[in-house]
Amino acid sequence: MYHAVRPIEAVSPSPYIIGPEQFSQQMEWLAEKNYQVVSFTTAWETLHSGRPLLPKVIVLSFDDGCRDNLTYAAPIVRRYGFAPIVFLCPDLFGHSEGNYRDFHAHSPLLTRDETFELIQAGWEIGGHTRRHPRLVKLRTREELDDEVGGCRVAIQDLLGYDAKFFAYPFGQFNAVVKQSVVRHGYQAACTTLNGFNTARTDRFELRRIVIRAEDDLREFHRKVQGAYDWLGYFKLRSLEKKIQRQARNASVSELR
After folding, report:
1. 243: how many CB neighbours lie within 10 A of its CB?
2. Domain-wise residue ranges, the chain
3. Overall average pLDDT of the 214-225 stretch
4. Beta partners for 127?
5. Which side of the chain, N or C, has fewer Cβ within a 10 Å radius?
6. Per-residue model confidence (pLDDT) at position 73
7. What digits encode the pLDDT tens for the residues 20-33?
8. What is the Cα–Cα distance from 152 to 66, expressed in whole angstroms?
């Protein structure tokens, strides 16, 4: 899981902005170590069929739809024939770097035409809501459906592309948010829970490995090889307890 890839000073201004040289070294390492970097669709169809994936299969994903995904990341992945997926917010096409309510865009965001260029380069497109809100904080079903379902409709209208996969903004979701994603026909959804996926993984709680600016090549190796999978377990347990508390509080409110 990546966000922005662009030139930085000695220290990255954000953990989610990594330099092109750093990104290039990571892609080179995957190729040299014979990782099978496949499209999201290829990995999903294999998992969904119940067939085992080949060893060392990787999917590259980018959240938010930063313009530098096209200008810096795309030429690098093209060297190796990799086809990532970018999860984007269509209502923010062409917006500058900055704050949009809860969301901070780490770089200027892709325009509609630039997104077409990524599609032509073999990238897949996924939904990331219309405006990148914290879905768990939306108060009504109408607001939630507008962000989740409206995102898929807007991508279809603007790009003629059927976005079959979704990523939760900020990695935040609960049972109600998942139901909305299911209701609007997405086939699967990505979280920020750390770890690997198998045929038994909930398809609306797919794990990812978050790559950060401070990850040197040795740390990247460790992450890809599963050194921190235990983090996903504890984060999931914490999330489950939070959802249970919310359900209990809702039940109490109904009784009152």
Report:
1. 16
2. 4-255
3. 94
4. 88, 166
5. C
6. 98
7. 999 999 999 999 99
8. 18
